[in-house]
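Quick review question:
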């Protein structure tokens, strides 16, 4: 469809009831099983309609059919965590780690999933890997993520060396100095209590 025809089709679909939209995307996914994007659209509509388990099933089907489909795996993991299915999420996290081993942003994302599942050692390991892999310009955001993790875990002594490293990386960056200052204040409060 050209741009105007696509806009018209989108508007017509948007005017339908949520159930009619869900049926449309279900049929689209069923009729075009070799296009994962249609299944992802269907899964997204399931989520919007509060059908998380069904959405997880749709993503799981994509991952089962194409194990290297990292996008679907990354969409599946938080659903499994939200549904309390951490035992099912764990192998997907391990596989996503393998597929993301050279991508610091994805490693930080996966670390966040481990935090949600109380996999603190795995989370710390991935945050540290992200810091090591990140180019210099991106290191601060990964250092901040690990620092937040340490404060959440009530480990300010582990966070302080990271704060010093952050300061040394960008001593003149007001945003970094603000973050570092906030963390130091939190460390001081934690030490007083």
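Suggested answer, residue by residue:
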């Amino acid at each position: 469809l050209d741009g105007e025809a696509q806009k018209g089709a989108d508007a017509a679909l948007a005017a339908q009831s949520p159930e009619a939209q869900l049926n449309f995307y279900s049929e689209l996914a069923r009729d075009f099983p070799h296009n994962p994007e249609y299944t992802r659209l269907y899964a997204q509509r399931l989520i919007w309609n509060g059908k998380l388990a069904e959405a997880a099933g749709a993503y799981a089907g994509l991952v089962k059919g194409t194990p290297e489909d990292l996008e679907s795996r990354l969409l599946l993991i938080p659903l499994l965590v939200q549904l309390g299915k951490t035992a099912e999420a764990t192998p997907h996290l391990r596989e996503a780690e393998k597929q993301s081993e050279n991508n610091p942003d994805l490693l930080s994302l996966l670390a966040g999933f481990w935090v949600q599942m109380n996999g603190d050692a795995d989370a710390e390991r991935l945050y540290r890997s992200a810091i090591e892999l990140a180019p210099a310009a991106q290191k601060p955001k990964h250092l901040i993520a690990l620092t937040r993790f340490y404060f959440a875990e009530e480990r300010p002594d582990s966070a302080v060396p990271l704060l010093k490293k952050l300061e040394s990386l960008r001593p003149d960056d007001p945003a970094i100095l603000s973050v570092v200052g906030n963390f130091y204040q939190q460390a001081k409060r934690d030490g007083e209590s």
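Why it works: The chain has a mean pLDDT of 90. The chain is about 80% helix and 0% strand.
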